[in-house]
Amino acid sequence: MKMRPLIALPMIAMAASCLAARAEPAKGDRALGEYLAGECVACHQVTGQASGAVPPIVAWPEDQFIAVMKSYKNKDRDNQIMQTLAGRLNTSEIEALAAYFGSLALQPMKN
Ligand code: HEC
Question: Which residue owns the Cα nearest ligand 1 atom 39?
């Protein structure tokens, strides 16, 4: 009988965190996104600055990022490089990239 509160408490905590997780939008795997981003940051600046013809992609809402990547993937958006890159990514990889780049803060210009 004495054990009961010790068992019940973690169960309540687990139930609560399940409910909390369900209330939030599906999030990509940020760590996977950081890993995959190695390819992207050859062109896109992690600081969020535009660089030549390459637009900034940090601090975007995840939904928007996912939608844009999917539109390159299914060639609704016209850009050969991005179509090829997005075409190689599956949905969870795109979500992971959205979570990673979305979590980065836009940094002020250095000059
Ligand atoms: C070889 C350079 C290069 C690489 C590598 C690259 N991109 Fe791009 N990306 C571009 C260019 C150039 C554009 C602008 C294309 C256009 O005009 O539609 C762009 C556009 C985008 C956009 C849309 C930006 C906007 O403002 O509409 C997103 C999102 C994006 N890239 C994500 C990524 C991700 C994620 C990766 C890594 C998987 C990646 N890019 C890798 C060059 C690159």
Answer: 40
Span from the CA of 53 to the centroid of ligand 1 (angstroms) = 9
Residue among 54, 37, 38 nearest 98 (CA):
37
Decide if pLDDT at 18 tops 50: no
State if residue 66 touches ligand 1 by the CB under 6 angstroms criterion.
no
Q: Is the CB of 85 under 6 A from ligand 1?
A: yes
CA distance 91 to 67: 11
Say if residues 61 and 55 touch (Cβ distance below 8 Å).
no
CA of 110 to the centre of ligand 1 (A): 22
Query: pLDDT per residue over 54-105, tens digit each?
Result: 999 999 999 999 999 999 999 999 999 999 999 999 999 999 999 999 999 9
pLDDT attached to residue 2: 59
